[in-house]
Amino acid sequence: MQAFTYAASPSRIVFGAGSLAQLPAEVERLGARRALVLSTPEQAASAERVAALLGERSAGVFPRAVMHVPIETAREARAEAQRLGADCAVAIGGGSTTGLGKAIALDSGLPIIAVPTTYAGSEVTPIYGLTEAGVKKTGRDPRVLPKTVVYDPELTLTLPLAMTVTSALNAIAHAAEGLYAHDGNPVVALMAEEGLRACAAALPALQADPRDLAARGEALYGAWLCGTVLGSVAMGLHHKLCHTLGGSFDLPHAEVHTVVLPHALAYNAPHIPAALLRIGRALQVPAAAVPAALQALAARHGAPTSLAALGMPAGGLDRAAGLAVQTPYPNPRPLERAPLRALLQRAFEGAPPEP
Ligand code: NAD
Description:
By secondary structure, the chain is of the alpha/beta class. The chain has 2 domains: 12-156, Rossmann fold (3-Layer(aba) Sandwich), CATH 3.40.50; 161-349, Dehydroquinate synthase-like, alpha domain (Up-down Bundle), CATH 1.20.1090.10. It has 13 helices and 8 strands. The chain has helices spanning 23-29, 44-54, 71-83, 95-108, 161-178, 186-208, 213-232, 237-249, 253-268, 273-283, 290-300, 317-324, 337-349, and strands spanning 12-15, 35-38, 58-62, 88-93, 112-116, 127-132, 135-140, 148-151. A 6-stranded parallel β-sheet has the order 1-8-5-4-2-3, with helices on both faces. Strands 6-7 form a two-stranded antiparallel sheet. α4 links the parallel β4 and β5. α3 (71-83) packs across α4 (95-108), α6 (186-208) packs antiparallel against α7 (213-232) and α6 (186-208) packs parallel to α10. The longest helix is centred in the middle third of the chain and has 23 residues, at 186-208. The chain is globular. The two termini are 29 Å apart. The mean pLDDT is 96. Nicotinamide-adenine-dinucleotide is lined by residues 40, 42-43, 67-68, 93-97, 99, 117-118, 120-122, 125, 127-129, 155-156, 158-159, 163, 167, 230, 253-254.
């Protein structure tokens, strides 16, 4: 057994169908009396439902979260929290809404309760992102980690099938990279393999019936584990490429993860035999077939498999390759421009992944 360091995240996790009903007690448990409820405009009705559930413990609703947390929105939300005298925030939604909660916490130390409705995993990480003048900056700060996470699979029944598949693959990407993280450890490896298995196993049932509550529970359980991996260890090439492509070319988050993951794993393949063994076990395919199996998984469930389909301009591939080798994340295989440019070409075209 190799030496390792393991630090457990201090979040409290409340999991189960119908667990939203426990939210008022969870607010009380934090000693809070006035919760500001956050959501995107699309999920404003869910936020109003949460506010009604909280009754006099609701300070108000701020339904204006958008992707990538523009600093202007973060400032508005912070001002609203102050104006209403909020002493905690409840973020109901995907990574964008959780991200807004984190932006408030970063500034004010306000405790956040996250109620995730996608599989992004942000709710269990101390990672925040803020976009200022078109540039997204990310950082880690323990203050932004939600104090409590209420995982209620019933809230994911409305997640459209296309987003269900790409969001699950976003979760799988956290687990896959966690398995070869330079600062990995045996506990994180267990969570990664089990999270990956649960997310992948849920997809066929959700394809057949997106309202299958048992499968929704399985996927959300997997997302929790995969998110915990993301919050615990360093990510590598895959996340670097996704941040570069998402940030510089404004491509949709979960979809970029879906397209890039098979190619990033193929690039690293000769250097990560143990990780591929675990991923293969979770997906029930041979280790050597993992990159192709992940691409096939996306295709089988109607998810995009090319950057071109996401609106990536062909003329941007050179720039993306250049950006990817700047301030590289730690990765098992050194990041070299020429093979990465070739990787991006294959990802652009939706070609099979190659080492
Ligand atoms: P999202 O939060 O942007 O949600 C996409 C859309 O789906 C929104 O309109 C949302 O309202 C809607 N939606 C969410 N759940 C729904 C449901 N159950 N039913 C119907 N509609 C629903 O998407 P996301 O992929 O969850 O989050 C992406 C963002 O999160 C990115 O900005 C990414 O950088 C960030 N992120 C951060 C971390 C972190 O650790 N900091 C981790 C993962 C993602």
